[in-house]
Structures are given as C-alpha cells and as structure tokens.
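Quick one: structure tokens for this chain, please?
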Amino acid sequence: MLLPVRVALAAVPARSATSAARLATSLATATRVASAVASAVAMAAAASVAATAAARPATPAAASAT
C-alpha cells in the first residue's frame, strides 16, 4: 500500500524538474513571440507614419493649390 506512495514521492523532483524545464521553454517561446509582435507593430507604425508623411503636401502653397 505504501509502495505506490513512495514511488510517487520519489518521482516528484523529476516531475518538478521536467515542469520547470517546460515552463522555461514556454517562457522563452513567449518572449520570442512577444518580441516578434512588438517588432511587427513598430514596423507597421513606422510604415504608417511614412505613408502619412508622403501623402501630405510638402508646403502650404502646394496644399492650397489642390
């Protein structure tokens, strides 16, 4: 009756180490994904600013001519 309990308790450190390794891998993956998303958002924002600047007339005289 106690043997399964002892086996289960003996396996706890191994399970904890495996869980910790999986958690570390998951966190590293989440960090890479978050970084990629932030980079994509920054690039999209820069492209939007550039497109807006290109669409504006260069001078007030050019704006009044349109």
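The chain has two helices and no strands.
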